[in-house]
Every structure is written in C-alpha cells, then in structure tokens.
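Quick one: structure tokens for this chain, please?
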Amino acid sequence: MLARKIRGVLGALSLFAVVATPAGAQAEDPAKFPSKTVRLIVPSAPGGPVDSVARILADALRTVWSETIVIENKPGAGNSTGALQVANAPPDGYTMLVISDSITVIPSLYPDFAKDPLKQFAPVTMLVTAPQVLVARADLPASDLRAFIAYGKANPGKLNIASPGAGTISHLTQVLLQQRTGIKSSHIPFRGAAPAVNALLGKHVDASWLMPAPLLSAIESGQLKALAVTSAGRYPKLLNVATAEELGVKDFQVMNLQGLFAPAGTPKPIVDKIAGVVGKLLQKPEVKERLAQIGFDALGDGPDAAAELVRVNVARWSEVVAAAGIKPAGVK
C-alpha cells in the first residue's frame, strides 16, 4: 500500500514537472523566430569594446528582424553577473549574451560559474576577433619582445605591467609570457583599458598587452612603441612589428574574442537559425567596415567552431590561472 502511494506521488510530481516546464523551453517554429523582443545582455559597462560590438550587431539584426532588439548592460563581478543572468534565462533564444573571451576565464575565478561554460550556455557563434599588441613606454630599453624578455630577466620584478583588470586576457597574456619564459614582472591592474593606456602615456607603468586599434596613433607618433603582436601573422596596420612566435615564444597566439551565447537547452533549430542570420550579417561589407573601425575582424563561424574555441581556451586559461594562483579582485 505504501509503495503504491509513493509511486502515485512520484507520478504526480513527474506530471507536474512536465506541466511546469516553461513555454520558452519548448521548441518554437524557427520560421516564426523571433516573434517578440530579443534581449542582448552585455556583462560590461556601456562604451567598451563588447558594448560596441553588441550595438553593431543589434543594428545589423534590425535590418532583418522586425521585432524589437534591446541591449542591456549588466556589469559586475568580472562579467559573471550578466553572464549568470543569461544562463538562468528561459532557453528560447530571446535572451542572449554578447561577451568577450572572459567567458573562458570566469570558470576559473568565480565559484558560481560552471567549470564548463558549455553546460550553462549554447554557443551561437563567435562574432569578432583581434590580436593583442605588447606596447611599452617610449623610453623602455627594449625594441622588441626578445629584448623585453631579456630586460625582464636582467631586472626581475622591475617591469610594471598594466592591464584593464585582474583576470582579463591582457593580464593573463603577461602571466602566460612569464610562465613560458621565466621572466618576473609586477601586475598593475586598472579599471579598464583607457586608464591603463593613460598610465602608459604618463610613463607610470612600463608596458601592457592591449588591442592594437586604439593605440595606432600613439604608436605612429612615437608616444608608445609596439614590441610584438599575438596573432599567427603580422597585424596589417603594424607590419613592421613581429609576432611573438617570430620572436621566439612558441605557441603564443592569444586572440581577443567576442561571441554570442544563448542559455543551455535552447533548441538547436533556433540556435542554428540565429547563427545563420548573424553569420550572413557579419559578412556584409558595411558591417565588416564598422567592426574594422573599432579594431575587430568579423567571424560568424557558427556553433561548432564557437564551442571548440570555448573548450580550448577554458583548458588553456584554467591552467594559467591555477599555476599563477590568480583570484578575482577583492578575494584574498
């Protein structure tokens, strides 16, 4: 009798679970998507590179979708605040995340984030990519990365390296260089790239790994000097600057990435439709030009390629973070 009652209760609970499943989790006809407002969550403040890419994407989507597209900035906790909001949203394609490659670093820094972000998010596509350039104050006695490494080894701990914040790709690139070459430096974190650049221009710090585009005029004028880029080939607007690998640091391709993600469980037909639309938009000359103006190359290579990049970079940065004992700001 008791066993029968238990089976009855379990059956009722199972039925309730089916009834209580959010409508958004049910597969919508992709042909009708979108049929309501689409929200793009940006987990950083307005005006930064992720926000700029999101706004270019939103403008492009408005040319093909008649439904409203809203951008919501949700900064905080190293981008994890906005990211977790999307992870907990209905998996229906109407709430998506535009985020930098911090999505592959957050799992190593914040315990509320899954160690595998692919369990919390469905990759839609990588949107853009850009290399990093090692820029130094004009009077630093190093003409390229090889000389920079030699200077760092001869003066252990003397180099002050600025970054837009602890745990950013800029910060981790220098940590990776230290782990690969044995040099030692001091990390000086700032609240964003702009103050880091100002500190460089004021000669308050020695160098930083940053995106090239905003620095080109300072490099051309001689206010800063470029020592290396992290791409596979030379950066088209800095052809006289060698890659890190050309200068002897092997396996040192580090690219800034930004991607579009939906909550895990979003139906594949919806993910594929969004990826297809976004991929085509990113190849439009006017969209590529707008992205190029802020220093990015368009990607739009779809869910599988995005997922693979996430897997590779999560593994890479988790090793770097663990070996260096890096913790987010405010955590001792």
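The chain has two domains: 37-130+256-324, 133-238.
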